[in-house]
Every structure is written in structure tokens, then in C-alpha cells.
Specification:
Layout: E1 16-20, H1 25-33, E2 39-40, H2 55-72, E3 84-96, E4 99-101, H3 107-117, E5 121-134, E6 137-152, H4 157-166, E7 186-190, H5 193-197, H6 201-210
Parallel strand pairs: 1-2, 1-3
Antiparallel strand pairs: 3-4, 3-5, 5-6, 6-7
Helix pairs in contact: 3-4
């Protein structure tokens, strides 16, 4: 078989390998809706061990820890040595003042978390880090923060019990998921809707276009 190229035909560039350093259902759904081929890398980072008095700093540190875990252990996370690897990591929380609301541990904890947010407006914050690797060598890094104002109505005790019983919200930051569980708990979103899902289009689309992952 003749594999030679004519003068007008160039070899195809090496493929891009996209790795999502997150188990988040919402983040996976965002990349799937964009039609991106990717795989999930479940890191060994204990997010709960990373704390800070400033919520934004804490979210940034957690995101950075996920990224560093993957790029420092390329063989464990099976990064390609020949091709370009794009690693995406993110962390999200609801923030009120200096208090951050992450994932709940059980249904009762979810209820207490939601009670603290209902009837108020909070800021849903996502820190995103995207790293481009040529093989195992870092070539470029983007670090962004997106903030969205989310307003919740106050549920009655019966409504709250029904809400918590119907869905498993221990999987989601701040005890709710606007895309997974349609409900009238959230009455207003001022800013990026996809940010509240966990991976804001406003941040990732310009970067992924620049990297030619999407058109």
C-alpha cells in the first residue's frame, strides 16, 4: 500500500484527546451537547480537605488540584505521549457572603442547605481550568471564574420534603440541579445558565474554538 503524500496533500495533524477531570453529571452533559468526544478522568483528590476562608480562593484551589493531579501523573490518567491532550477541570459552589455551599452529604443535609438558600439570591461560582499539553508537556493554560446570580423561592415544609425525596441532590453543588430536576425552586437566573450546570459556555467555547476542538 502506497502511503506517500502528494505535494498538495499534507499529513493529518495528530488527534486531540479531551479529558474531563470531573465526575459531574452536569459537566459531562455540557460536553456531550457540544458533540465533543472526551473521556472522564476520576482524580484521587479529596476536595473536602481543601479549605479556605475565602470561597472563591477555595474553589480555585480545588480546581487547580484536579488539574495538577492529572498532568503530574500522565501515565496513571493515560495521557497520550504523541498527541495533544486537553484537560478540563472545574469546581462549583453557591456563595453567600463568605459562606460557600458545596455538595450535601445526605437528604437531611440537603434540606438544611436549601433552607439557607431559599428565599434569597446567591452567587453560583464556577472555577474552570483548561490545560493544553503537547504530549506530556504543558503548552498553555487558561484559568477563569464565572459568576451567576441565582434567586430561589421559599418552599413550604411539605414542598421541601417532596423535593428532597424525589431527587438525589447529594451529587450536585448547593443541593440543586437546574437541568437534571425541573422544578420551580429557582425563580431567576441572572447570568450564565450553563455556569449553574457547572461548565459555562461563556468560558469554554472561546477556548475550545481556539484549540479547534469545535468549530
Amino acid at each position: 500500500m502506497n502511503l506517500s503524500f502528494s505535494k498538495n496533500q499534507e499529513p493529518l495533524p495528530p488527534p486531540l484527546h479531551v479529558i474531563l477531570a470531573s465526575q459531574s453529571i452536569g459537566r459531562k452533559s455540557i460536553l456531550e451537547k457540544l458533540g465533543i468526544r472526551f473521556r472522564v478522568a476520576v482524580t484521587r483528590i479529596d476536595e473536602d480537605a481543601i479549605v479556605d476562608d475565602d470561597p472563591i480562593t477555595m474553589i480555585k484551589r480545588r480546581t487547580k488540584a484536579k488539574i495538577e493531579e492529572v498532568i503530574k501523573h500522565p501515565r496513571i490518567y493515560t495521557l497520550s505521549e504523541e498527541a495533544k491532550n486537553i484537560v478540563i477541570a472545574a469546581d462549583s459552589m453557591a456563595v453567600v457572603g463568605k459562606k460557600a455551599f458545596g455538595k450535601s452529604i445526605d437528604r437531611e443535609d440537603t434540606k438544611q442547605l436549601l433552607k439557607a438558600l431559599m428565599g434569597k439570591t446567591h452567587t453560583f461560582v464556577t472555577a474552570v481550568t483548561i490545560v493544553l499539553l503537547n504530549g506530556h508537556t504543558e503548552a498553555k493554560r487558561w484559568e477563569k471564574i464565572e459568576k451567576t446570580k441565582v434567586t430561589m423561592r421559599k418552599l413550604s415544609p411539605a414542598e421541601l420534603d417532596s423535593y428532597v425525596a424525589r431527587y438525589d441532590f447529594t451529587r450536585f453543588a448547593a443541593g440543586y440541579a437546574v437541568n437534571e430536576a425541573p422544578w420551580d425552586l429557582v425563580t431567576k437566573i441572572d447570568g450564565s445558565y450553563t455556569n449553574v450546570i457547572g461548565l459555562p459556555f461563556e468560558v469554554i467555547l472561546p477556548i475550545l474554538r481556539k484549540l479547534e476542538v469545535i468549530v
